[in-house]
Amino acid sequence: MQSLRVLLVEDEQRLAENLKQGLGDQEIGAECVPSAERAETLLESNSYDVIVLDLGLPGKDGLQFLREIRQAGNASPVLILTARGALEERVAGLEAGGDDYLAKPFALAELVARIRALARRSPSTAGAPTILRVADLEFDAIKRRAKRAGRPIALSPKEAILLELLMRRAGETVTRDMIAETVWDSDYNVFGNLIEVFVNRLRHKVDRDSDKPLISTVRGVGYSIKTAQ
Hints:
The chain has 229 residues and is of the alpha/beta class. Strand 8 (145-148) and strand 9 form a beta hairpin. It has eight helices and twelve strands.
């Protein structure tokens, strides 16, 4: 793989220096800043293949920074790197727009693998529709926007990927393994609990205010989205 450019937002100086050196040895160039405010300045004039973000930052919190760059339209993949390990905190980070999560302490090899996985770009499938429709649910795969019965649905980046996966396989059962591999580029054993949380949150957004639920659970297997009412 060609050299990647990473923005590392980490306030622990020694850790940041060690990571920068270790990533450099793997042909991943890392620019390190100790705060969200410094990162914002760099993002005004630079682009990065991946942003590696610690949540426990001085000044502006990592979650607030992440929400703000997503609201501003920055779609760079974000790997959340933090000592916070509770399920609720992992969900909060991913829902704020994070693409992956790695808890401290960690192995450099795993960090490198996850950065490279996030940086990969899969070519669009030739002829695949960009506007998906199931009943009164519509999803624009280019703009990453959804609406149901004309009502806009606010989706996090991961929720958008999950919804697209379900809609492209409407009427089929999407297994938990398929969700883990597609949404997080990982295996189900790593993201098992988070998958259930994210599906439930997506279901609430999609089926809210409707007497015809679309997303259903296939017990013991996965989930599906109905094609007919």
